[in-house]
Amino acid sequence: xxxxxxxxxxxxxxxxxxxxxxxxxxxxxxxxxxxxxxxxxxxxxxxxxxxxxxxxxxxxxxxxxxxxxxxxxxxxxxxxxxxxxxxxxxxxxxxxxxxxxxxxxxxxxxxxxxxxxxxxxxxxxxxxxxxxxxxxxxxxxxxxxxxxxxxxxxxxxxxxxxxxxxxxxxxxxxxxxxxxxxxxxxxxxxxxxxx
Amino acid sequence: xxxxxxxxxxxxxxxxxxxxxxxxxxxxxxxxxxxxxxxxxxxxxxxxxxxxxxxxxxxxxxxxxxxxxxxxxxxxxxxxxxxxxxxxxxxxxxxxxxxxxxxxxxxxxxxxxxxxxxxxxxxxxxxxxxxxxxxxxxxxxxxxxxxxxxxxxxxxxxxxxxxxxxxxxxxxxxxxxxxxxxxxxxxxxxxxxxxxxxxxxxxxxxxxxxxxxxxxxxxxxxxxxxxxxxxxxxxxxxxxxxxxxxxxxxxxxxxxxxxxxxxxxxxxxxxxxxxxxxxxxxxxxxxxxxxxxxxxx
Lengths: 195, 297
Prior knowledge:
The structure holds two protein chains of two kinds. Chain A is of the alpha+beta class. Chain A has helices spanning 5-23, 93-96, 98-102, 126-144, 171-183, and strands at 44-49, 58-63, 75-80, 112-113, 122-123, 146-148, 154-165, 186-191. In chain A, the strands form three sheets. A three-stranded antiparallel β-sheet of chain A has the order 1-2-3. Chain A is elongated and about 120 Å long. The N and C termini of chain A lie far apart (77 Å). Chain B is 27% helix and 19% strand. The longest helix of chain B has 25 residues, at 254-278. The chains are: A alpha+beta, B alpha+beta. The A-B interface holds A 5, 13, 16-17, 19-20, 23-25, 27, 29-39, 41, 77-80, 82, 87, 89-97, 99-100 and B 1-3, 7-8, 11, 14-16, 19, 41-43, 45-47, 49-51, 55, 114-115, 118, 120, 126, 128, 131, 160, 163-165, 167-168, 173, 176-179, 181, 257, 260-261, 264-265, 267-268, 271, 280.
């Protein structure tokens, strides 16, 4: 761009004039300041229990969308549940970063099976998994169930398989779990809440 | 929030003497950080990142539990861990660093970009990144070394005290997460009472020098501390008597602005006068004759 000496002086002078006027307060901008828009205004709330330790803190999962038919609820925020008696809204650093755990690319999302001797895990269906677990339990129980001990006393024990329950289960889930396993004769029942 | 709604108390590089002010009955909010209760778990740090959609780069071990090692444009609060001696005994001090939300903010005073730093009526000091010019003067102006310049977009970031949550009546994310109640949030008056109550408790437990850190040099802060070793705020990394530098105060003052405007006017007037008196600069033709021009390459 070619600017003549005269043109340059004119530009400079008008520039100085404009900045001076601006500096004197004749600014065009409105005095507006905005906080970031509150991101949870209409998010759907789902209560849940933190999956980590045995404290079992209540969390609220905030999902994108209002649960209408066509809105796929993507979890976009996780916060402590203020109404939960265990944590009353607070969380530890692991609980506070649950969002990244939920969306972790390495998170296990479906049952996987590695056959004995195989090197690869392969995806299997829930139906297949439940059938297989039931089959293995039945086979093991049929083989090792003890109806009587050495003295001929009735014991109805199944000692060769142990069961581990999750601490995040509710009282009701724990009750049902215990009843089912005891009904099968299971004696090795433990819970993560013990740790 | 517009100026008309009277939610803004101060605005950087803006004269606001006649700002609307009838809505004067507003509680100031405050965050109280009780370091005697802090276990350094970093739940506040995680909750801050989660709420504000920040993900800092994964750092490396630097000989302390702090990670990242310092505040960054992506980490607006950071737990610091100091190993030091207090009264002849080893002390492992845990400290939550972040913006103090001063009543007289040095960043706001230093900022030359109109509206890039605002102070809301509830006391929160917030950066408006769309107005930020990336000069970094707020970093120089801050007595607590809090704002961080983001290289990728040349804008400055810091803790907002979750102004988006507070504006809809919620507590900040860090406050909500804290599992030991080391962080509490409420009106400044309420927090002062709580802090005084905590001091009585700490004194009774043998921490006779416990104190509240709410420095008057910056007009008090809306994030303030209960320090178990209150007589030595330096051991936590806090300045003893923080204040906004005199130069920072001067350079945004009316005197400096008047001087600047006067200089600009002076140069303009002098230029015009000089032109009127001496006219345009004539280069004397030294080579003589018509041959001069042709001699130029």
